[in-house]
Design brief:
- By secondary structure, the chain is mainly β.
- It has one helix at residues 277-284; strands at 14-22, 27-36, 43-47, 51-58, 61-65, 68-72, 76-80, 86-90, 97-104, 128-129, 139-148, 151-159, 174-177, 198-203, 210-217, 220-222, 239-247, 264-267, 292-294, 297-304, 309-310.
- The chain is 2% helix and 37% strand.
- The chain has an 8-stranded antiparallel beta sheet, with no helix packed on it. It has a 5-stranded antiparallel beta sheet with strand order 14-15-20-17-18, with no helix packed on it. A 3-stranded mixed beta sheet has the order 3-11-12, with no helix packed on it.
- A hairpin with a 4-residue loop joins strand 1 (14-22) and strand 2.
- The longest helix is centred in the last third of the chain and has 8 residues, at 277-284.
């Protein structure tokens, strides 16, 4: 929840949920939540451990960097590369801000390979924007907080570090509006792999395997015929951490006791999962001869080939956040398969 009472800045409001690997060898990821209600006055944060992908969920962030300023609102994301100093604060007039953070210790984020899709599709390079140029020449008591190997260090300065007048190159923070995503989907039957919704990826040395993918489930037309249209039941070799920016997710019901905006779920590698009983019942009765538009919300997924370990905080039932009855969402699933007409051991249809 958003903090109440005492002021809490972005850095103070970060809490780690899970992770794998570490920054010393530049391998792995960590996933955090942030919740803040106070600006980072005369303070900058620098992460020497890796890149940070910020995903606002409630309330816009005003992000000041050495390269300029950005306003990042829900349904937008921004990436702050390793070592860049920045300050993230709730936007002016806001009571607070809340969201998700994906930290990657290895290579930088990049656009996924499009393969047979061709030159255009998914997140277009033209839609990524750098900060608006800005600097300040100000003498003050300034603090730089640096994260190195998981520990925080504070250094005092006699001036603002946001005094960079000009820069060149392409190592800079950037933001992207998720509403600009060029979705690709089936126009006949069945499901393409969810990788078609990848916005950014961090590759590994193994072809086709990502250290981290940032995947969204955007508003889109659903037109597959004779197909169960929500995400199907599956197990895979990737670990999936999901969040909900707003609205509902088409595979989980919303509201109290469901998948709510600001919430998150984690399905480890090899863990079976899929739509809840309510989504199955609805989709199983749908008329798939007619296309429908899903425009009820925006969910996302941090996906990684690493095996994520929950932090003690995330696994503690007393934190008020853990759904200890999560598995109940699959209770009552109907048995829809019929073996009628299928010969034992044959490939009957």
């Amino acid at each position: 929840p958003l903090p109440t009472g005492a002021p809490v800045t972005f850095v103070e409001g970060l809490v780690t949920m899970c992770g794998a690997g570490g920054p010393a060898l530049k391998e792995g990821v960590a996933i955090h939540l942030y919740s803040c209600n106070a600006p980072m006055l005369d303070t900058a944060f620098s992460n020497s451990d890796g890149d940070l992908l910020l995903v606002p969920q409630a309330g816009a962030l005003h992000v000041v960097t050495e390269f300029g300023r950005m306003s990042v609102e829900p349904r937008e994301v921004c990436v702050v590369p390793r070592g860049v100093r920045f300050a993230a604060s709730p936007a002016a007039g806001s009571s607070g801000a809340r969201g998700y953070v994906l930290e990657t210790f290895g290579p930088h984020f990049r656009l996924p390979e499009l393969g047979p899709i061709g030159a255009n599709g998914l997140a277009e390079p033209r839609d990524f924007v750098y900060p608006h140029a800005w600097y300040e020449d100000r003498t003050c008591d300034f603090t730089v907080v640096t994260k190195l190997l998981g520990r925080l260090y504070a250094t005092k300065r006699t001036h603002s570090v946001f005094d960079v007048v000009g820069w060149h190159g392409n190592y800079a923070p950037y933001k992207y509006d998720l509403r600009r995503f060029h979705a690709v989907n089936t126009v006949s039957v069945d499901h393409p792999d969810p990788s078609i919704f990848t916005v950014l990826t961090v590759p590994t040395n193994e072809p086709g395997v990502a250290a981290a993918d940032f995947v969204i489930f955007p508003p889109r037309w659903l037109c597959a015929e004779g197909t169960f249209r929500p995400p199907y039941f599956h197990r895979n070799c990737m670990s999936e951490f999901m969040g909900l920016i707003d609205g509902v997710y088409d595979a989980k019901k919303g509201g109290k006791g469901g998948f709510e905006p600001g919430g998150c779920s984690y399905h480890g590698a090899g863990t079976p999962h899929g739509p809840d009983a309510a989504a199955v019942a609805s989709a199983s009765q749908a008329d798939t001869s007619r296309p429908t538009k899903f425009d009820g919300g925006l969910a996302f997924m941090f996906e990684t080939s690493a095996l994520l370990r929950l932090t003690p905080f995330a696994a503690d039932p007393s934190n008020g956040m853990l759904d200890t009855d999560y598995g109940a969402c699959w209770e009552g699933l109907p048995r829809l398969f019929s073996s009628a007409g299928v010969a034992n051991g044959s490939n009957g249809k």
